[in-house]
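Appendix B. Chain record.
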Amino acid sequence: MKHLLIIACFCSLSLSWSQSKLEMTPQGFAPVEAQTPNKPLEKLMALSKSWAAYYNKNGYDVFDVTDKSLTIGAVKENAYFYRNFGVQYDYNIKYTLKINFTQNQQYVLTFTVNEIYANEVLTQTKISDFYTPNGKLKDDFEEVKPSLESTVNKIIKSYSNYLVN
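Structure tokens predicted for this chain:
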């Protein structure tokens, strides 16, 4: 029994460690592909909906549901920050996570930041505003990239771990 537990932990850890990290670009976040656990598609869809409720305690939407995909929409508070003259500004995001189960036990996650809020007020800021026209991160927003990437990767890792366990 002890050996089975060790093997299960190792498999679960290796799946979560093999998860690709999402990186912010001027276009947002590129989709990432990962292995699904050995579970039926119906179970994976049900787990995805269950994760949405588990992770997004302040509300969420599940929409565009098909037999192999769904989209989850939610708000993430304190999703990223940046400092200006020593003052830290925290921002919330409204995001969607598109989950598409493909052939060969794979799934594709597409994370999109739809809206950015400062103090509960919708801003006109988009991800592309953090970059210069040639794609370089603007000096004033050097903390935004690692801060937002960390948040997005925590969301993705939480989802992936939920499917495995």
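Further analysis of this model is presented in Appendix C.
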